[in-house]
Amino acid sequence: MGPEPPLAVLLELTHRCPLRCPYCSNPLELERRGQELDTAAWRDLLDQAAALGVLQVHFSGGEPTARPDLEDLVAHAAGRGLYTNLITAGVLLDEARVGRLAAAGLDHVQLSFQGADPAESDRIGGYQGGHRRKIAAAGWIRAAGLPLTVNAPMHRQNIAHLEAIIDLAIELGAERLEVAHVQYYGWGLKNRAALIPTRAQLERATEVVEAARTRLKGVLVLDYVVPDYYAHRPKACMGGWGRQFLNITPSGKVMPCHAAETIPGLEFERITERSLAEIWTNSAAFQRFRGTDWMPEPCASCDRREIDWGGCRCQALAILGDAAQTDPACGKSPHHAALVALAEAESDRDPPAFQYRRMTRSEPVEA
Ligand code: SF4
Ligand code: FES
Questions:
Q1: How many A from CA of 283 to the centre of ligand 1?
Q2: How many Cβ atoms sit within 10 Å of the Cβ of residue 86?
Q3: What is the pTM of this model?
Q4: Phi and psi based region of residue 105 (left: phi greater than 0; alpha: psi -120 to 50; beta: remaining)
Q5: Residues 6+ apart with CB under 8 A from 345
Q6: Fewer beta carbons within 10 Å, N or C terminal of the chain?
Q7: Whose CA is nearest to atom 8 of ligand 1?
Q8: Residue 365, pLDDT above cutoff 60
Q9: Nearest to residue 84, comparing CAs of 94, 75, 95?
């Protein structure tokens, strides 16, 4: 029997972005404009996704509004009955464009903020004037009647401002605030020492979130994700490898998660080479870590193996050099204590300068 259909597909429409966040989830090797799928290819992919049983489509990047055909693609997805979500930094939006996106059938907007203080937020995102533009974008989004989630990636350089970020989300009329600690793959891994909070900072943030959840019941929903390195059990990354999610790169590579290309030995096929249904069901890369057959101990005999699916393959690779091991974020992993020690030691030192995201891998820009 084949796998269940995926729940959601995330389209990295482009890797281009005016911001340069040092924790960007895009790969270190960014795809260029000339490699991006054209409008017809993205439309075809949306048709295939709907036929496969996908329910939600997330338009992401890079910065998806850098693509002038975004409205067209949103309308196409909505016409196929897909729930449409835009994940944006917001700095390229204007009022007319937000209106066009709403008219095209957009269901929801997730707008990222780097912090609550304008100068500090612009420093973190590596883009002058970005915070001010985001505030304006939030106003247009709400005025267009679109539900708004504020997405505030959290790390040691903005965690002290969490209360102000919560206040900002309320002022902006957001329905939901996502406070997710930065994940350490790709750019985040490269900048881990500049981003990882101390345990004391994390405990304080958890208290702030819990108090806000009580205080703001019925006003603002708060999603909270702690850094894996301090967790006791890992997250079910992507809901399990090849179980719920598809990630499509700008050039049409189909992957189970955004960081999967870091895993050596896996080949990811392009939507221009094989159908989405065939890739989802039969490709070797999707089958490699699907289900529980691949699991080593302690996962193989663990009663949580169908809850967290052994955690994150990309994290096992990043920390242990082997994607087929138990995620070291799990307390049952023999490597967990070393991971916690690493987090504590790294967060105890002064943060180094950011290595900002950039299109080429040549000399990093520091600040
Ligand atoms: Fe999850 Fe494996 Fe840890 Fe069990 S041993 S909790 S399945 S990561
Ligand atoms: Fe790739 Fe978790 S990010 S499996």
A1: 25
A2: 24
A3: 0.95
A4: left
A5: none
A6: N
A7: 310
A8: no
A9: 75
- 341 is written with which tokens? 């020690």
| Count of all residues that appear for the chain in the document | 367
Q: How many CA atoms lie within 13 A of 137 on its CB side?
A: 25
Ligand closest in space to the Cα of 189:
2
Looking at residue 224, what DSSP letter applies? E
The amino acid at residue 226 is V
Taking only the tens place, the pLDDT of each residue in 153-194 is: 999 999 999 999 999 999 999 999 999 999 998 999 999 999
DSSP structure class, residue 366: B
Instruction: Return the CA Rg of the chain.
Output: 20
335 lines ligand 1 (CB under 6 A): no
Pair of tokens at residue 47: 């048709």
Query: Which of the ligands is closest to the CA of residue 302?
Result: 1
CA distances from 187 to 60, 88, 220, 236, 298 (A): 17, 18, 30, 21, 30
Closest CA to 254 of 232, 280, 230, 234: 280
Tokens representing 128 are 């002058």
